[in-house]
Amino acid sequence: MAALHEEVRTRYHIAVCTRFVERVCVDTPSPTAEFIYKMALNENLKDITDVGTLPRVSLLQLNSLPCSLVLQVSSSRDVTQPLRPCLDTSEEEPILAAAFQKNLKTRLLRLVLSDGHSEVPAVELSTLSVFRSIPVPGEKLLVKEGAEIKNGAIIMTDDCVVPLGGGVQQLKKEVLIQQSRSDAPRFQPLRFGVSTPAGARAAAGPLSDSFDRDRGGNVGRARGRGLGYRGGRESGYRGQRPHNHHYNRPQ
């Protein structure tokens, strides 16, 4: 068991615990290191590792990754897209597809990667060709030795990152639940000439009532002045004068 455990860590850069190796051996007699590695890709690293593989020193003190590591995606997003999708999105559109599968030419990924015990951010400064789609939490990535580190974040490039696939169903379900609980406001069109419902009027409070009273009063006063009124008290009558040819103008 110990030999298999060490071989998986040395050849495939993933530190599976001996308990996981024993569990695999129960179901599959005499498994190879490659078989154990492939099984590990579909497991949560938190459950199958006893120790972390990320450097114990702060990544802020490092300029590059000292060794190759298999890390698990904890979260992922395209920083060029809104944090929350609008609720007006069609319900038939799969939530995961809307949240993760957009592969735009202007995409810029920000991932949080984990060895099962600690996490590190990873970013792409330009759209990489190695990602056919945005990685979903639970997928595994191989980050090669020498990957550049800036300000504590791994700078992903086509040469230093290899998507390995895999997945964790529980993590995918959690993402679905989180996305379905989005509280982004639904678009409400502005309507003219529609009476305000009683419930909305009550919610608006006294401000709405005072506005309606003022508006009604102004309309009433405008109607009381008559159609010929065009000015103030001293502006005089500006309506149409009677057809009288003998009208005497004041001298």
Automatic annotation (TrEMBL):
Residues 240-251 have a biased composition (Basic residues). Residues 65-175 form the RecQ mediated genome instability protein 1 OB-fold domain. GO terms for cellular component: nuclear body; RecQ family helicase-topoisomerase III complex. InterPro entries: RMI1_N_C_sf, RMI1_OB. GO terms for biological process: double-strand break repair via homologous recombination; resolution of meiotic recombination intermediates. Belongs to the RMI1 family. Signal peptide: none annotated. Residues 199-251 are annotated as: Disordered. This is RecQ-mediated genome instability protein 1.
